[in-house]
Design brief:
Elements lengths: L2 H24 L28 E6 L5 E7 L5 E5 L3 E2 L2 H13 L22 E7 L3 E11 L6 E6 L6 E4 L10 H4 L12 E7 L6 E5 L5 E5 L25 H10 L9 E3 L19 E6 L12 E10 L6 E6 L5 E5 H12 L17 E8 L5 E6 L2 E6 L5 E2 L2 H11 L5 E3 L17 E7 L10 H5 L2 H9 L1 H12 L12 E9 L4 E8 L2 E8 H7 L3 H4 L13 E8 L2 E10 L2 E8 L10 H12 L5 E5 L3 H6 L8 E7 L6 E10 L5 E6 L2 E8 L2 H5 L7 E3 L6 E8 L1 H4 L3 E8 L2 E6 L7 H11 L2 E2 L2 E5 L16 E7 L6 E8 L5 E6 L5 E6 H9 L9
Antiparallel strand pairs: 1-2, 1-5, 2-3, 3-4, 5-6, 6-7, 7-8, 9-10, 9-13, 10-11, 12-16, 13-14, 14-15, 15-16, 17-18, 17-22, 18-19, 19-20, 21-25, 22-23, 23-24, 24-25, 26-27, 26-30, 27-28, 29-33, 30-31, 31-32, 32-33, 34-38, 35-36, 35-40, 36-37, 39-43, 40-41, 41-42, 42-43
Helix pairs in contact: 4-5
């Protein structure tokens, strides 16, 4: 290397050192806030946090000499180790640390440098914070001055040996007496921490409940009691509304409330004569209450449970609403609320009232396999595949199941508070009909085993199979389809829960049932409605979807056979436009059909929904007697265009169901009887004829004549009008002052006139239609340019509902129809309606 290169590198090095030094010189140094009494706790380079403090000492010399020592235990919780070993109120201990760390002098108070003047030469108290064996900090407390709102205490510290004034309110925690530091909770700080609760007294055997790994509560004692009711019954419900319970949750919450209410309720410490308070170890007056709770404190999630036992003694002679108590591992006597003890003791008095009355606790989203095995008949198996339930019966390939029906079964099984009774355990399973159950329901959660993925590399080593696939593609597709319908394998034959139904007592509306879950079993009585539900046959669970023809498939013909006759409409093409024309009945042949009503029928049938499946492959006798489908009340045939060969889709509708809400139906595409909503018949009973009874070009109407108003005048009157000079004028009577707007209004009502309903033919045969002028009818005659004959519309009387008028028109001879009352009532009233008002 040359000297020149060396000089260059050395120069770069010196430049870098210079830049670094400049940065250090320009960057401001973070300083400690001088207002702190213990500034070294707040050194930015090495700050001390509250969690770093491991020991607190409070040494007082006045008014009484005492020394309090607090230490953090292995669970990071504070314990008092002097003058006695007490459990500590964690908030109170942490308050001291926070107050000392945050102590700042009051800058507004002038303080002379004399320690003696402010009572600091011999401090009233010294608070010491320690961080393990590394360091310690001292805060010396001297005299106090000022009123309650502005009181200060004079202090010095191990960091600053000079008098300073601090607001007394900033150090409230350090002045508390010993009792105020003691933990007031006895068994648990919160009910959520409790994992186990056991009670016993001199009159009752032990009752114990514990929380399982899945978060449920169960009885450990008495054995065989099964689950514990966590929430309880709402007030005024359950088998005995007057004696409803609040559930184990309320008991746990009350157990957590077994605490010392105030510092005055710490009665005595290190008591030797425990009999005085009824608290001897084996002779205590009240119950023994044991809990196991989660270890509290920072970083204790995985710590083993803490066991705590409370002994309850005599009632206090001075405070009758309280009783003496102590923790079993202490001899410190306290007072607690007697009512809370009584509330917890209800679990001892009647543990049966706290038994869980939910039959099963299912996470239905995870349920993926259900078996129903009746004593007789086919067994049903349901498996959830790709979020869709499939049904397997008699080892046949799977078919799509009605997912709503399977979910309804799970809902029924998991319904709240189904258990009605807990039979006497002395009664045998045989006596309850459980030796040979009538039906067994098994449910798995996350029970289906995942299919193993094929090794792509292994598949790649089979070129011959690939060639075969190309040659026999159709066969391979068939195999894939078959495999798709194969029954999925289960991880285990043992279900999550198994329900065996035994003897039914119809008079009491119950059925006995054995529930098996894990290694536990329980015999209960439930409503026999559940047995009815689980005993439903395969039809209940079959997919209720009906075959549908493709929306793009053209319907060429529609035939409706109903009580009022046979109607047939066919689609015709003329000038490139397709129109529906009636073929039957013969009297309507050639008339335009209602495209809207026909499309409504087609759409109704295409999207027809079965509310329930009733019978598969029914006999002719059942079709006739049970369902009325041998000769259906309504039969609709849709003829679809399928190339050169049309295809008929036939829908038959028979009797009403017993509850009058549905009708039995059948479809030729699926040999099964089902029920549809009764409202489906509304679309099938609509008029197929085009409701348009009159259509014209308004611009070609040259004259109008109205005859009628017999009821108002006593004889038929006439009003004849002609269109001149762009407006309507009266022709007869000659002196009639015609309101042009009213004439135009009538003409507009006639344009595109639509019937609300076609009634019958040959209307003149029935006088109640009131189509005669003397009966009050209104006859409107329209003269149209270039038409030989005028067009006549006769509007008669009201129908039975009083909402429509009977009417006829010369354009449709012999056809009776209805017109809406609200549209023509004003014209029928009086002739004066058309006169111009002065």
């Amino acid at each position: 290397m040359s000297f020149k290169t060396t000089y260059i590198l050395f120069g770069v090095f010196l430049l870098m050192i210079g830049v670094f030094g400049l940065i250090l010189w320009l960057e401001p140094t973070k300083s400690i806030d001088t207002a702190y009494v213990l500034p070294t706790l707040h050194d930015p380079a090495n700050p001390v946090e509250a969690k770093d403090v491991t020991q607190i000492e409070i040494e007082r010399t006045r008014p009484n000499a005492e020394k309090l020592v607090f230490e953090r235990d292995a669970d990071q919780r504070w314990q008092m180790t002097s003058p006695h070993h007490f459990r500590v109120d964690q908030w109170a201990a942490n308050q001291i640390v926070s107050e000392v760390l945050g102590a700042k002098k009051n800058e507004k108070r002038d303080v002379t440098p004399s320690l003696k003047q402010w009572g600091l030469e011999e401090p009233a108290a010294v608070i010491t914070l320690k961080k393990g064996d590394e360091r310690e900090w001292k805060l010396n407390l001297g005299d106090q001055s000022g009123d309650k709102t502005g009181a200060v205490v004079y202090v010095s510290s191990s960091d600053r040996n000079e008098p300073m004034a601090i607001n007394r309110s900033d150090l409230d925690g350090v002045f508390k007496p010993v009792k105020d530091f003691r933990a007031k909770d006895l068994l648990a700080e919160s009910a959520f921490d409790i994992q186990y609760l056991a009670l016993k007294d001199s009159k009752h055997p032990q009752v114990a409940v514990e929380k399982t790994a899945d978060g449920q509560w169960k009885f450990k004692e008495p054995a065989g009691y099964g689950g514990a009711d966590y929430e309880g019954e709402p007030p005024g419900t359950g088998p005995n509304p007057a004696k409803t319970t609040s559930g184990i949750r309320s008991t746990l919450e009350t157990a957590a409330q077994l605490r010392v209410a105030s510092a005055d309720d710490f009665v005595a410490d290190d008591v030797s004569d425990l009999a005085k308070y009824g608290l001897e170890a084996d002779k205590h007056d009240g119950p023994r209450i044991e809990v196991k709770r989660n270890a509290s404190g920072f970083g204790n999630d995985k710590k083993p449970a803490v066991q705590q036992t409370l002994l309850v003694g005599k009632k206090s002679p001075d405070k009758p609403d309280k009783v003496f108590a102590r923790l079993e591992d202490e001899k410190n006597v306290v007072l607690i609320d007697a009512k809370n003890v009584e509330a917890v003791s209800k679990l001892l008095d009647n543990p049966g009232a706290f038994r869980d009355r939910d039959l099963v606790h299912l996470d239905q989203a995870r349920a993926d396999a259900v078996d129903i095995k009746p004593a007789t008949g086919p067994a049903l198996k349901f498996r959830k595949v790709d979020f869709q339930w499939k049904m397997f019966a008699d080892n046949a390939a799977g078919q799509k199941a009605d997912s709503a029906a399977v979910e309804a079964l799970l809902n029924a099984v998991a319904a709240k508070r189904q258990i009605k009774e807990f039979p006497d355990p002395k009664v045998t399973e045989a006596d309850l009909g459980l030796a040979n159950p009538s039906v067994v329901v098994s449910i798995w959660q996350d029970g289906i085993a995942k299919e193993e993925k094929k090794d792509e590399k292994k598949d790649a080593d089979k070129p011959d199979e690939k060639k075969d696939d190309k040659k026999n593609g159709d066969k391979k597709d068939e195999k894939k389809e078959e495999k798709k319908d194969d029954q999925p394998k289960l991880k285990s034959d043992k279900p999550t829960v198994k329900l065996s139904f035994g003897k039914r007592e119809a008079s009491r509306g119950i059925v006995y049932l054995k529930r098996e879950s894990g290694e536990e079993s329980l015999i209960v009585a439930v409503s026999d409605a559940l047995l009815t539900h689980v005993s439903d046959g395969p039809l209940t669970y079959m997919d209720r979807s009906l075959p549908q023809f493709d929306a793009n498939t053209e319907v060429a013909k529609l035939t409706v056979n109903r009580a009022d006759g046979v109607y047939e409409a066919e689609k015709e093409t003329k000038d490139g436009k397709k129109t529906w024309k009636l073929k039957q009945p013969a009297s309507l042949a050639g008339r335009t059909a209602s495209e809207f009503n026909i499309e409504n029928i087609v759409s109704t049938l295409r999207f027809l929904q079965a509310t329930r499946l009733v019978a598969e492959k029914p006999s002719d006798a059942d079709l006739d007697a049970k369902y009325g489908l041998k000769s259906p009340a309504v039969k609709v045939t849709l003829t679809l265009k399928k190339g050169d060969k049309p295809e008929d889709w036939v829908y038959s509708f028979g009797k009403e169901t017993d509850d009058k809400t549905g009708v039995y139906a059948r479809q030729n595409q699926r040999d099964i009887v089902f029920i549809v909503a009764k409202g489906v018949l509304n679309a099938l009973s609509s008029d197929l004829q085009d409701p348009t009874v009159l259509s014209m070009d308004l611009g070609k109407v040259e004259g109008m004549k109205i005859t009628g108003w017999h009821d108002s005048a006593g004889e038929p009157l006439s009003l004849e009008m002609e269109y001149k000079m762009g407006q309507w004028a009266a022709k007869t009577p000659a002196n009639f002052k015609l309101d042009d707007k009213k004439a135009a209004e009538l003409l507009a009502a006639m344009d595109g006139l639509k019937a609300t309903k076609f009634v019958a033919e040959k209307p003149g045969a029935k006088p109640e239609h009131e189509l005669d002028l003397k009966a009050g009818a209104l006859e409107v005659t329209l003269t149209v340019k270039n038409e030989k004959e005028p067009t006549t519309v006769i509007i008669g009387g009201l129908d039975a509902d009083g909402k429509n008028y009977y009417a006829t028109t010369s354009k449709m001879p012999g056809q009776l129809f209805l017109l809406p009352k609200e549209k023509f009532e004003k014209f029928k009233g009086m002739r004066s309606y058309f006169s111009k008002k002065e």
